[in-house]
Amino acid sequence: MLYFVIRNGKMVIFAVNRQICRSHREKLKKEKKQLEEDGKKQQVTAGHTETIQAVSYKVTNTKNKTVSVSGGAAATLKIQAKIKIQNETYTVTAIDAKAFSGSPVIKKVIVSDAITDIGDQAFAGCKNITSVTIGKNVKTIGKKAFYNCKKLKSVTVKNKAKLNKVGSKAFQKTAKKISIKLPKNLKKNKKLKNQLKKAGIKKFK
User: Fold this and answer.
1) Which long-range contacts (CB under 8 A, 24 or more apart) does 187-194 make?
2) What is the pTM assigned to this prediction?
């Protein structure tokens, strides 16, 4: 490629290699793309939401890389232990209050081992839920967490569970024959059993 420039009254001809120009353009494109990606990463702040497999996750702490579950709907609701946001791994630590409240879609709930807290009224009014599996690291089930889940009849708590607090009315207005299967380390925990009875579960396995 030739360029003509007038310099000191004389025409000067410059020859430019097309391959060099093309390489330069490609380099600029790569740099621009990298800047855009870096910019997107910087936009992840507390409160940022991401939806993965019909479940919405909300960033709670960017430094510790943690998220909570804020909503969504699926017949079999399987809450993951970890998710990816812009190539960064975040740990799912809690289910927000009223996260799935009133959802008619959910039939089965599986809470991962990474979750430590199930918020107040998290699944209240989900009338088609029939079974729930509680992850071993869940310590707290909030008030009215499964209140008015009329078809809920089976609750299973995983082995070596850390469950120690069940909020009032957490399992009230569920199926008449609702039962809970506790792991060996919790079967003799009278305080927890009393909380569960007050919350609405009378039958233990």
Assistant:
1) 189/164, 191/164, 192/163, 192/164, 192/166
2) 0.78
